[in-house]
Design goal:
The structure is a homodimer of 168-residue chains.
Chain A lengths: L2 E3 L2 H18 L5 E6 L3 H11 L3 E9 L5 E9 L4 H4 L4 E9 L3 H11 L5 E10 L11 E10 L3 E3 L7 H7 L1
Parallel strand pairs in A: 1-8, 2-3, 2-5, 5-6, 6-7
Antiparallel strand pairs in A: 3-4
Helix pairs in contact in A: 1-2
């Protein structure tokens, strides 16, 4: 199967474009919620362009053999802050919308705090049939770049970054 | 003042080297605690080489004018997980050891949960007089790269990544 090798600088540019889309949409939000660990790097780069605080949630959906588990599981959740999400406008960020299961799980958990608004921004969306769905309360769904359903090799996972960048 | 412009790929290599130092030291740990937002990207790249879960804490020490505040302030802390830190071995990760105030603050907070061991890994250390101190319980202090006391321009803060990379 053909893979996508993506460079840091390509991803940085995609996120700059994504930030531009978010600003152009008129969607205003108070806080970025990053889904870890995949969303940490995209959220931190988006912060450069959007300048909002980041909260994180840790979700794991793949076991140590990289196989999806029955359901996503919380590694870390938002503590005293969770009450502060009530009435807030949230931008939820992850690196990739693959099966949509993790996204749906996070969105439903966040919606239980009754935020005023919620939008989603993903660095990449894989064009494929989704097993999860976006709850109807989601007002915006922003995608940095649409990709076919192939394996994505992110630069932060590279054992050898020079080799990785040579494959881009 | 001369500034350091650092590329993603240089930083990725520094973190690979840092991970090698940590492994070679024999320091074993259960969990990475990343100080956000600066530590998010270093911690996520370190995870590629160290393969441990990441928890995050959000600390802010600079106001909107980039001036240090009186004391660091929590943006997010560790919730139900905090009890799980008791008896655990922690590697605390941040991007830069500058004044050491944020590091000391985080270390003292984490030590209050009585972890079994705690070590620190920073991508960069600035060689300068420190206002904070490392508590004596800190068993290891790992540095990816030592730098003089200059402004560090991280690639994730670049408005224009091509321009940034051309300055490296």
């Amino acid at each position: 199967m053909e893979k996508y090798y993506l460079s840091y600088s390509e991803i940085h540019k995609t996120l700059k474009k994504l930030a531009g889309q978010i600003k152009a949409s008129g969607f205003e939000f108070d806080v970025i919620v990053a889904i870890g660990t995949g969303g940490f790097i995209p959220a931190r780069i988006l912060k450069t362009f959007l300048n909002k605080p980041i909260l994180t949630v840790g979700i794991t959906y793949y076991d140590s053999n990289n196989q999806p588990m029955e359901a996503p599981r919380k590694v870390q959740w938002i503590d005293e802050v969770e009450k502060r999400l009530t009435g807030k406008k949230i931008l939820l960020v992850d690196e990739v919308d693959d099966s949509r299961v993790t996204l749906e799980y996070c969105l439903r958990e966040l919606l239980s705090y009754n935020p005023e608004k919620i939008g989603v921004a993903v660095l990449h969306n894989k064009r494929k049939e989704k097993r999860g769905t976006l709850p109807e309360q989601v007002e915006h769904y922003f995608v940095g770049r649409e990709l076919a359903d192939r394996w994505i090799c992110y630069p932060w996972d590279a054992e050898d970054i020079d080799l990785h960048e040579s494959m881009v």
